[in-house]
Design brief:
Layout (H helix, E strand, L loop, with lengths): L1 H11 L7 E7 L2 E7 L5 H5 L4 H13 L6 E6 L1
C-alpha cells in the first residue's frame, strides 16, 4: 500500500522529491503516513478533503482481498 499512496501523491504535487510515505503494521491494522511539502498540502487534501477521501477510498478498495484495515494519515 505504501507504493500505491506514493505513486498517487507524486502525481499530484509540484515537489515529488519531498513526498515521504511510511507504513506501520499492527496485526491486521495498517497505517500509511503521507508527508508532503507544506506548499503541496492543499493539492493532496483538495477542496473540502475530496482528494484525501479519494486516496483513502482507492487504498481501501485495493486491500479488500487482503483482510486488512488500512488508514491513510496525511500530515
Amino acid at each position: 500500500m505504501k507504493d500505491l499512496v506514493e505513486v498517487i501523491a507524486k502525481a499530484l504535487v509540484d515537489n515529488p522529491d519531498e513526498v515521504v510515505v511510511t507504513e506501520e503494521q499492527d496485526g491486521k491494522n495498517v497505517t500509511v503516513n503521507l508527508h508532503v511539502a507544506a506548499s503541496d498540502m492543499g493539492k493532496v487534501i483538495g477542496k473540502q478533503g475530496r482528494i484525501a477521501k479519494a486516496i483513502r477510498t482507492v487504498v481501501k478498495a485495493a486491500t479488500v482481498n487482503d483482510n486488512k484495515r488500512v488508514d491513510v494519515e496525511i500530515g
